[in-house]
Amino acid sequence: MIRDDLIKLNEQTGFSPELKFGQNFLSDENIISDIVDLCDIKKSDKVLEIGPGLGSLSLPLSGLTDNLTLVEIDKRLASFLGEKEGLNAKIIVSDFLKLKDYGAPGFDKIVSNLPYYVMTDIMKKLFAECVNAGKMVFMIEEDAFNRVVAKPGTKQYGPLSVLCSLYGNVVKEFTVQRSAFIPAPNTTSCVISLTKGERTLDQGLVNFLDQVFRMRRKKLLNNVKGIEDQLDLLNIDHNCRAEQLEPEALWSLYNAIIESGNKQA
Question: How would you label 134-169 residue by residue, b for 16+ Cβ within 10 Å and e otherwise?
């Protein structure tokens, strides 16, 4: 089906997949079905899909909800999706990272095949803006999963792994081989699910984490000035660095700073 769509689109517009947009289209029907099942869509759910491509996920998703929004950066693909038979969705033509006023707080579920080069930036934006989303399902490069679940004291531990941990439960669901895509990517992928816990994240937290990890070898006190009282309140050593702290401790520090009225973070 996806191969036929590519042939049709090429004949109509001269379209060919572009590496700069991470255009590797999922074509394995079993994996498509498994991802859709993972999303656990209810009819009332408002669903956001980023980078729908040729609509391999979009079509079955649109059969489960009347509130599907697709954000596609490529105008040719967006036009193709707009004419796709049976697809019931709102289509926004935009770079998601530049998108504003798209009703972010209203989305219940998020799904995306995330290109590696924008994975972190897109996930940060989602955590900051789609604050009520109860579940997110992503396809990512398998090697990138270590950045999602990195622990304190490791080189890969940073804002992304802290945000994922604070958001809720993170599960690596299954691996997806290169052969499941057209054209085949250079690396193996995996599907992960994130289920929201009790916390609600925000842009302030994202900014705070970016700040404390920007100079990761520096002490917290050098990255965020004037927080001695908050460190003492939480029994955090003044010589501590962000990379040494558990996500829970960073969450507590962020909230202590906010409560004190210190806006430097």
Answer: ebbbbbbbbebbebbbbebeeeebbbbbbbbbbbbe
